## 1
Amino acid sequence: MAEKIIEVKGLRTSFFTDEGEIPAVDHVNFYIKEGEILGVVGESGCGKSVTSLSIMGLVPSPPGKIVDGEIVFNGENIAKFSEKKMRQIRGNDIAMIFQEPMTSLNPLLTIGNQMIEGIKIHMKWDKKKSRARAIEVMKRVGLPRAEELMDEYPHQLSGGMRQRVMIAMAMACNPKLLIADEPTTALDVTIQSQILKLMKKLNAELNTAIMLITHDLGVVAQICERVVVMYAGKIVEEGAVSSIFKNPKHPYTKGLLKSVPDIRNKNERLYSIPGNVPRPGSIKNGCRFAERCEFAFDRCFSDTPELYEVDDKGHRVRCFLQSKEEESNHDTAFTSSS
């Protein structure tokens, strides 16, 4: 069994504004094993990106701050690390690919300068050795004419090539964990497929664990092994991709799966979950999805559900319907045995 490379325990990240404390991530727990690809799914504003920025130590402060919880990496709680200590881990042991490569790359520096800088800092190599490593990883991610690209600027590259450069920069120091935040956003379908295949290939060859943040369930089905579904700052369902896709338990997960376009379905209108994601911190009591849920009953508006076990393989759901189902199954079993 592969060991857990990172474990997030009770993570609570808030933003402090004139209106008071606004929790963006509220008591989130999950783990990623060595060589595993974990998908983190949810609508915009559900806390996916803030979770990843918390792991990287990049939550803008002020106004943001990790209020509670632990982020255990290599046996240490990195949530308590100083900025100086985090710089040693960031880009070296944990690397991140951001959503939009054009805003992540410096337009005033050549690709080579940006690649070499990180390698020199983390690997403590000279410029010649760092340049050779940069060209090597650029070739590994499928970039043509890597030597020439070293002297070009970001605006001279296509969107797909810029994203490959970002992946090359992230993989240059052989990180143990790669966080990819919407890595295929704004790319056309063909390039999306190439980027996903590349990430899967790097995962297989280098045994790099990947945390893939996305709103696209098709992407999750394609490359992830386990999935965490987030809603309004909390995890509402988690488990193996096969289990959740075949047997979704949370009404929100069911709604997300139902919203995926199906070419076999000739309906003119696509399904959408009614209502909108609540403003962070606006719901004080009850299930955060209750207002949009067609199955909600009285308890959903007053109490907050825990994560209930669906099976013994790690499938868990934050929904009172699962609790009622367990009670019903228990009553049936008791009746039949009496």
## 2
Amino acid sequence: MTWRVVRRVVGPPLAAVGLAVLVASLVLAVSGADPFAAFGNVLEYGTRLETLVEAFNRATPLYLSGIAFAIAMRMNLFQIGVEGQYILAAFLAAYVGAGVGALFPPLHVAVILVTAMAVGAAWAGLAGWMKVTRNVHEVISTIMLNAIAVAGVVSFLLGRWKIESETLDTRLGDIPETGWMPSLNPVVELVTREIKRVDLTSFILIAALVGVAYHLIINRTRLGYDLRATGANPWAAEAGGVPPKRTIVLAMLLSGAVAGLVGMADLLGDQHFYSLRFPQGLGFAGIAVALLGRNHAVGAAFAAVAFGWLERASGVLEVRGDAPREIVTIMVGVIILFAVIAYALAQRRARIEAAAAAAAQVGEGPDAVEEMAGAEAEP
């Protein structure tokens, strides 16, 4: 990865975060709070080992959600069905994981993960099938499938498969300990102090493997080339021998398979059963991660960690009375807004550089460079 690629991928998110901090400081000052004290407390609390562990735990599903969205976006499919796909996948994976009983630990975990990926892929593939056979736009189909998955299938089956519980929570049975993923605390504690009250999920390693696989598939395989070519120009890709319908279905299947893994960090590392309290909203948050990370594996990792850290470190604001926790919601919105602006400026600069290089080849002047850059910006 060249320095230019790093600058274009990592630079805009860092610039967006900096501008978001500035805007949040102005909001705090207008509301009568001391921005220096507020952010000082956030920084002090956010640099504690336990807070960092919690941030990486939250960044893990956010990263997987962002990658799931980015796979479809690589060919201009706005796949907003990750929310329903991961909830349905977690529900059925939890049911299977509890139902098979105790197995050999790696096999038990594999059964749960394969179930989740298969369910997510099938649910996303349904949207892809509707697009290629009935020309149903993926935004419409995935919105409808989200509602069907959460308010339909999961709610219906949870009422019939629930177990008796001492609490008021409606839930499925517990996954045996052979289906749990171990904590990474012993590894981290080799170079740090003892970690208290929180366990670093080992599912972060699977998320990293998914990111590496995503990067290699998109940039080093024929399938990745087909996805990128179809997203850039579907007519030219089809003329070059790329089957658009098959590519659409494959993209949705891959996106859904990754989406099925989003809830596994909480299911296998923390909760060990599905209930009404299972984390929701991660699918929609992944859209922001992918946009901020520019659909790049490294950029999405930075974005996921940033959002995870902001979510966990912001809790100190309410505890110490510095400001309402909703200030973080404002920051996230501003980060996304400035990220879009920064990417637009970065793309404009890239077009000008490319046009300048092309003009230098033919000996054209500055006016020709601007004209060529403007022409490339047109669809």
